[in-house]
Structure formats: structure tokens, C-alpha cells
Amino acid sequence: MLIEPGLVLGILGRLQPLLNRVIDAVEITLKYDKSCFTAPWSRYRAASEINKLTESVEEHLKQADLVTVDLALSISAKVENATEDTKHALQSVENQLSIVTRQLPNVRRQLTDVTRQCLKPSTGKSWNIEEATFAIITAFQNLNASDDHDNAMEALPLTLATIDPQQPSPKLDVPQFVFGLDDSIGRLQQLLLSRHSDADPHSIGVWGKGGVGKTLLARKVHNSMEVRQHFGNANIIWLTVGKDPDIRSLYRTLSEKLCPNLVQLNTFSQTDYKDILYQELSSRRVLFIVDDVWEESVIEWLEVAKGPGSVTLWTSRKERVLLRAGVTETTKLHMDKLSEEDSWRLFCVHAFGQYNIPPGVEGLAHLVVEECQGLPLALKVIGGVMVGKKWPGEWERELKKLEESRMKHQDVEKHLFDCLKTSYDDLENADHPNAKECFLYFAVFREDELLEQDKLFQYWVAEGLVPGEVGDDPERETYHVLGLLIGRSLIELESDIENKLCCKIHRVLRDLAFHIIQSHDPDEKKQLALYRPGRHLQEFALEWRTNAKESLAVRRLSLNNNNLKTLPTKISTPNMQTLLLSHNEELEDFPNGFLKGIGQNLKVLDLSFNNDLKHLIYLHLGNCQGLKQLPKSIGELKNLENLHLGFGSFTKLPGSLGGLKMLVVLDLRNCANLQHLPRSIAKLRMLVTLNLFQCSALNNLPEEFRSLKLLESLNLLGCGRFNYLTISISAPNMQTLLLSHNELEDLPNGFLKGIGQNLKVLDLSFNKSLKALPRGFNNLKHLIYLHLGNCQGLKELPKSIGELKNLENLHLGFGSFTKLPESLGGLRMLVVLDLGNCANLHCLPKSIGKLKMLVTLNLFQCSALNNLPGEFSSLKQLESLNLLGCGRFDQVTQIYILVGLVSLRNLKIDAHNILPTGLFLPLRSLVIHKSSDSTLNQLQSLEGLEDLTLHTGEIKDFDSHMKSSFHTPFLNLKTLRLSLLPNLQNLELNACPNLVSLTLNDCPNLEGVALTNCPNLICLPALDSLPRLGSLVLRLSIKELPQSFTHRGAFPALNLFDLGQSKIVEFPEVEEGAMPKLQWLDFDDCIFLHTLPASFSLLTSIQKIILGSKNEKLMTSCKTNFRNSTVRKTFMVDGKPLIPEEEVFESVVPMQEDTTTVRGSDKRPFQKVDGDNEERLLKRGGSKLGSDFFVPSSPVSFVYLGSSSVAETTKSEKEHDLCEAL
């Protein structure tokens, strides 16, 4: 076996460094102190690294099979020698991994418990932020680097226990470990304290790059005892501006602090607010700290602290902002990076905590600190990344990433972004699969927003971000993820106004989250997350709007904290899972079209704190199947009148629903998981309509339900677990009550008494176990509609039913009645009587003749009914009668009873009960079952018939002309349906001028169809699938044939196809295998048809194609296009060939006997081509004779395919062969 040298060298080149890395990894494991690897994650990473390297070596060894055996043995020996010393170490690693597996649950529990105790203490009090942050970071470091987890777990609760929860927290929170700010704090305090109380108001400022510690410095000064004593606690005001400030909202924040009586005055303009605040502060000495100002334009609106001795402290990333605010060189402080010593101290706190620096990494750690360039935020975050990393290789990899970023970005802020992104990337190795997505979630909120863990918990659970694993507790998982993010300094803790700890993300890290989200795709319509919170937008972003042909890919959309007034009426976001619209105080409307466009995947909807939504009247959240629960804030929509939640996935509704005091319509249809209604539903005193259709998990109605006095419509259809109604409904205004499909056995006493006499619609159908109608049934004097269908337990109707004087619709189908009470005749207003499928009913009451208003009577499948009472003929208003499936009536019934129904327009009847020939009925629609050939003769007198259906039967021939009669009964026929007629062989429709629709279903033996002189029939049934159809005549006004007529397999038995006198303008392309038996095709007088497709030649069985002599365009095109086709001989005009054989023969050029090259009429030669690729040659215009192919080298009028011995063939033989081929 020959081996390529390059292959051998390549394998050796890849193996050598791998072997070296294996040796190094194992030596490190053996060399360093064992305690270095007692931390679970350190042991796990070290073992994983060794295992990966070993697998790589084994993979390369497998490639040794490609080279010589000697080479394979050589490499194997080298690996064996190199790894012999590692076997015991690897075994030790495996043992340690098993220990890690056992310890991890306890270690994870530690971080989860500490985070939960800090954020949600059992005492109900808030912890000091410095101690809480320290405790969580320590627990996080224990997870990654602890030497003794059991001791650490015991120590942490003690640490927390020493904190006094009632100890007052500082006004603003600061971290416990702060380095390098002493000089800056001293200088800033000096600037603040040097001013006398009567001095002129002035400004001082702090500026520096993002993440350098400006806000931290301002907070330290804010909390300074000296500063508080100088200005007074009540006179120190803090205001965070941010990148996209809403001045009016900032003014409102100030008003809440300075003059609370103005908070509710939402009509103030910005100028009004400024004047009021200016006046309020003009006589006070205050320290006004304005943090994070980005633009100079904000300054003029916030220069309001003008009282004697007042100071405004500005912080900004831009020096020019401070100059615009009047800050001078002597009152300006520039914050630069930390010193090397302070940087190292801050980094060590976050990277190593209370643990010693691992052997071999201190030098690398100093290099990592150097890459952070003295930026406190970068030092904290990168320190969090390095927690638990004790193998030098891990530090080298992170250092290389930082160095590459510095080389790529000379700008410090861009380099900072890349440094911070290292922490985000490292979340891939975090102890939770969705940690990265949870971090990005913080971008949905506005800048500097404080987030309660309960809100995050609700959002994350709804979206499926927690629990990460099946069986985990979602709440515990939420605290665990928060602990991971706090431990890595990716989010912070801060106290709210109630001194409760909340989560917050640093502005720079929030910008990082935005950057990561937007980097996935620059096209916003393709991005999965669209966030614009806190941008004071007044309308929905134009670039997010869609037309009918496009959709947004977005799954999560946040427009929190804006000034939206309305939403677009149309949008398409089929993948939307989360929609956050809270704090849009001017939002007045929620268009139905907007919600319809969201799709069915919505899981989270937040509409809280939308003051103007309190005027919202209509809200439709139907079919949002991903929305597992309604927000509690739904109860804030005080003016909501219509709430539609149909097809939702709720198991329950919030108690706050009772706050919708103006609610009139509540639609909960098809909420199949809804198990009960909240008791607060009793507060919906204005509720008129409640739809619980198909709420199949609903067991019963709460006792408080009886408080809904104004209820007019209640739909409980399909609440299948309602065996009994345990309460009586008390709604005197009830008009519609639907209780069908509930398996009700009984209704409580007094059930109808509480409803009153205004009930108009009552549906008790499909309650098969219902044995009796409730008491007081006869008192429903205004009842119009009563449905008792499929109540098979109801053996008879009460006699009192005749007292329902206003009843118009009575449905008793599928009943078990054998007879009906004579009192039925008292229903003088009855319009519809449905007795369909009452198989036991053997007679109708004589009083039926009194139903003078009856219009519709359904006796379908009343199989025991063999006669109709004589009084039946008194139903002069009867228009629709269904007698299908009834017994056989005698002739007297037919003649003297049915003929008396002078208004009858629609009749459904079996053929054996149809009227004798010659008797007239004014029918417009007729359905006949079980028809025969004699049936058509019985229809001769029905000249006004417009709609005819023949269903089932033995009929063989349908001839609309009825040549044997003098009548033409189908002159007015518009619709004809023929179905389930297995014996039907011939269908002829002639002179049906009004026929518009023809339907053929299950007529498999139809052999001939002739449709002529039906000018309005332009849509044809599916004739091409009829397996035995041999003759088809379509002399109609159709302009085109269905494409299916010429598809492969169409008309498998068709022999004759007559299109004469039709108005078709184009014959569809013919597929191979279409009409395989077609021999005769008639285009006579098709004057609008000017050409036939080239694929026409695929009709291989065609023998005669009739062309009209008046259609010169069609004749000319056929002569041109089919002269050389095998179908040319089939074209006939007035009984003669369109293309005589002489014309074809004369076009042939005499051939030379000594060559196999043939020339066309333009003398261009043909090339003889080998016949291996027959299909390709035929497509190029070639023809075949014997085994030789001649393909034209350029377009010509014909192709000659001679035999291989052309030179031996006489001229006459060649000409004869040519004609035969053509």
C-alpha cells in the first residue's frame, strides 16, 4: 500500500501537540496541591479538559489505519508511553467527578437559598444591600471554588442572621467593596461643603467614560454624613436622566418628592411643571444630583435648583454637557481609571473572594487585570468570569480573548464592550441552560428600572425559561439564576422606595444586551426580540409595521414606559410570545386587528399602569393559546365593557377580574382548561353576556354567581361536567340560556323562577339523561326558541307546552316520543317544527292543522310514520317539508294532502312517495332519494323548478330534453346535483338556459356526457376523473377548459371529445398519459381558438381532429406547427385532410446516395448522432428509424433518419422511408 508522505506528516503534526497538551494537563493535576481541585466546578473543568484531549488523540489514532501498520504501532507506542503516567490521574478525576455529581445539588441549593433569603426574606423585612450582595457573591464563589461546602453552607445563614432587618438602609445603595474613590470623594465633598447657605446657586460636575464609577461616586457623596448635615436629609434630591429621557416623566418624579399634591394633575405641560418646580425650589437650599445626562438639550429643563446656597451636581460621559450646565474648571471632576493597586484589589474580591489565589495563576491574573484598563465595571464582571477557574489553561484562554479585543478596538469603550461580552459568553458554562437568555431579558425594561423578582418569575415561567430541567421548582430556579447573575456582577441589587431589594442592570451592561440582540440580524423585521422601552415613543415604530405579504419574526416585543396613544390596526407577528406595553399612560385603544395579528403563541401580556387604558372599552385576547394566565393588572381597566378570552389556556382567572365594574360582555368560549370562575365574578354587576361555551373542565358555577342580576345571555353549552346545577340562577332579565351538551339529569327546584318570564331562547339539547322539564316551564310566556333535541330520557312532552303562545322554533329531533300532545296545536306562532330522527313517532296530532304560521317542518327519518293526518293540508304557509326516510304513503295522501300545500317551495322526498305525473306543485327546490328512470317523467309538471338533487337510486339515463314528452321542465333549472348514482350511464343536458351549477359525485359508471345549449354553465364538474367516460360533448360558452382535463391520467377511457361551437380561446398543455384512448376531437366552429399547443402531439391515439373551415387562423397555425408531426394526418376540414401528403412529400429535398447526411429545404446539413440518449434527441427535434438518429445542427423543417446502409438504398426507397418517418 502506497502512502502519501503529506498524509503521514499531517497526522504526526496533529498528534504531537495533542500529546503534549495531555501530558501538561495531567502534570498540572498531579503537581498542584490537591485542595486546588476540591471545588466541584474546578474538578469538573479539569477532568473535562483531559477527557476531551484524550478523545482527540484516540480519534487521530483511528486515522492511523490509513497509513502503514508500522506507523500506527509507532504512534500507539508513543501515546501509550506518554499517557501511562496519566492513568491513575484520570481514574482519580473520574472519582472526583462522581463526588461532584453528589455535591452539586447541595451547592446549588446554597446559592438558591441565600438569594431567596435576601430578595424575599421570611420576616417580610428587607436586608441591607451591602450585606446581601456580599452573601450572594460569596455563595456564588462557593459554588465554583469552595474547599468545604458543608461549612460554607452553615456559615452563610449565620452571616445573614447577624443583619438587623430593621436597621435603616441608606437612601441610596452602594457596593460593600469600593476602591480608589477616597480622593475623589474628598474633593467632591469639599466642593459641596465650601458653599455658604446664602451663596448663589451653582453647578459642579463629574464626567468620565461609562463604567468608570461616576454614579457610584455620586451615591457615596449622597450618603455622606457631612453632606447630609450640611444640606439636610429632606433637601438632597436624586434624579436619574438616562439616554432617552422623558422630561415630563422626570418632572413628575420630582413632583412626587417635592410637592405630592401635584402628582394627580396629569394635564400639566412641561412648561407648567418647570414653573411650579422652579417656584418650589426658589426658596430652598438643596443638593440636586442629576445623574447620567447624555445630551446638552436636557440642561435647560433641569436647571430648577436656584434657591440660595443650592448646588446641582451633574454626572455625564461627555465633558461638553457639564460646560453647557455652567460647570467651570474648578468645579469639574474627571474620573479616570483605577490605579494598578486598586484594580488588583477590586478584581481579587470578585474573582477569589475569601479564597487564596490558586498556584500558577497569579501572574496571569495580573495580566487579566491589566486588560481591564482600570475600569471598575470590567474588573467586577471579568472577576466574576474567573471565579473557580484554577487551571492556568483556562486563564490563558480568557486572557487571549481580552488581548485580541484590545488589538481590535483601540477605543476604550468598545474594548469594554468586548470585555463584558466575555462574561456573557461564559454563561454558556453556567449552572443553568437558559442563563444567557435570562440575562438578555433585562433589556426589555427601561434604563435603571428596579425589578421585583416576582415579575421576573412570572415572565420567565410563562416563557419556559425556568425551570431549566423537568421536575425543578420554577421559583427556586428563578432565584438560582438571579444568584448566578448577581454573583457574576451582571446584575445588581438596589432598594426601592419601600426599602425592598430589587434587581437592576448597569446601563453599560444593558447596552451590551441590546448590542448582542441586534447583532443577530441587522434587519429588525427578522430579529426575534424588539425592545424600545423608555423611549417616549408616541406611536408604534413604522419599521415594525407589516403589510399583507410580510410578517415580523419577533417573539418578544417591549414598548414599556412610552407615550403610545394607539396601536396599529394591522400587524402580523405569528411567533409572538411576549408583549410588554406597561406604563403607556396615554394609550387609549387596543385595536382588535392588532391582537388578531399577534397569533396563537402569546404567553406574556403586560398592560399594567396604562392610565388612559382605564378608558379602554373593548379588549380581544381570543386564541392567544400561549397566554397561560391573565395579569392581575387586568382589573385596572375600569371602563372595560367587552373582554374576549376565547380559546385561551387559562386554568383560572385572577381575582382582580372583579375590578371590571363596567364589564358587559365576558367571552370565555373554548377555554377547555378553565376549572372554576373566581368568586369575585359577583362584583361584575353590569355583566349582561357570559359565554362559557365548551369550557369542558368547568365543574359548576360559584355560589356568588347568583349576584349577576343583569345577566341576559348565558352560554353553558358543552360544559360536560355539569351533571347538576347546584345553584339557582337569579337573573330576571335573562333572555338566552344555553345548557346543551351537559349531561344534565335534573334542574333544581325554582330554577326557572329566578330567570323570570323574559327568557326568549332556551337550549337543553343533548342532555340525554334529562327526564323532565323544570317546574314553571309553562310560565315562559315570551319564549321564542326551544331546543330539546337528543334528550332521549324525555319520553313525552308536557301538555303545558301548548301554553308557550309566542314560541316560534321548536326542535325535538332524536327524541323518544311515540306521539305528540294535541296541545301542540296551541303554538299558534310556531314557524319551525323539527322532528327529525324521531324514529318512534308513528303519528302526528290532528291539531297540527292549527299551526297556521308553520313554514318549515322536518320529518326526516321518522321511519314509523306511514301517513299524514288530513288536517295536514291546512298548512297553507308551509314552504319547506322534509319527508326523507318516512314510511310509504298511500296515493290518497299524495294527491289530496300534499297537493293542498299551495305555498310549498322546498321538498325533500323519497322517489316512492313522489306525486304522480301531471300533478302540479309550485316547487322551487326538490331533493329526491332512491330515484329511478321513471322519476324524470314524474317531474314533467315542475316547470318552475330551480334546484334539483337526485341522491342514490337506480337511474341509468338523465335526459333533460325528455324527447318523449311535450314539456321542458328544466327551463328555469339553475342547480343540478347528481350523487351516489352507481348505475347512471348517460347524462344529457340540452336547452337549460339558466343552468349555472352542475355537481357530479360518485357516478363511477357514467359513459356519456352531453352538455349543449346551456349558455350560463361556465364551471364544469370534475369530469376528467370519471373512469368509464367515453364520450364528452361540451357545446357551451366556456372560454377555457380546466387544467386537470389534460393532466397525466385524465379521461382514461375517453374516445370522443366534442368542443364544437364552444368559445374556448386556448387548449391547455397536454401531459404525457392524458386522454390515452382519445380518437376523435371536434373543434368545429371554435372561432376563438387560434392555435394548439405543441404538446398536442402527445395524444398518441388520435385519429381525427375536426377543424372548422371558417377558422383560418387555426388552420394556418396547425399547418405550420404540425406539418412534421405524426398527428398531421388527423386534421380534417370539411371531410378532407388539412395537410395533403403531396405537400409533405414535395418539401423533401432529394438525397445523395453516397452519404448519410441529409439536407433540409434550406440546404443545411443534419448531423448523424449516436442513439444512446434517445429522450434528449427526441426533445431536440430528432426522429427515429431503426437504430440511427439524425439531429439537425440548426433549425430545419424536417429530419430524415435513414438506415445505417444509406448508400445501398435506392432513391425511391429513401423517399418512401422519409415519408413514413414524417
TrEMBL record:
Q: Record's superkingdom?
A: Eukaryota
Q: Per the record's keyword annotation, is Mitochondrion included, yes or no?
A: no
Kindly give the Pfam families that the UniProt entry links to this protein.
LRR_14, LRR_8, NB-ARC, WHD_DRP
Q: Where is the Disease resistance protein winged helix domain?
A: 444-513
Q: Where is the Disease resistance R13L4/SHOC-2-like LRR domain?
A: 816-1087
Keyword set for this entry? Leucine-rich repeat, Plant defense, Repeat
Query: NB-ARC domain: which residues?
Result: 183-352
Asked if the record carries the keyword Oxidoreductase, the reply is: no
InterPro entries tied to this protein = Apaf_helical, Leu-rich_rpt, Leu-rich_rpt_typical-subtyp, LRR_dom_sf, LRR_R13L4/SHOC2-like, NB-ARC, P-loop_NTPase, WH-like_DNA-bd_sf
This one is known as: NB-ARC domain-containing protein
* Organism field: Sphagnum jensenii
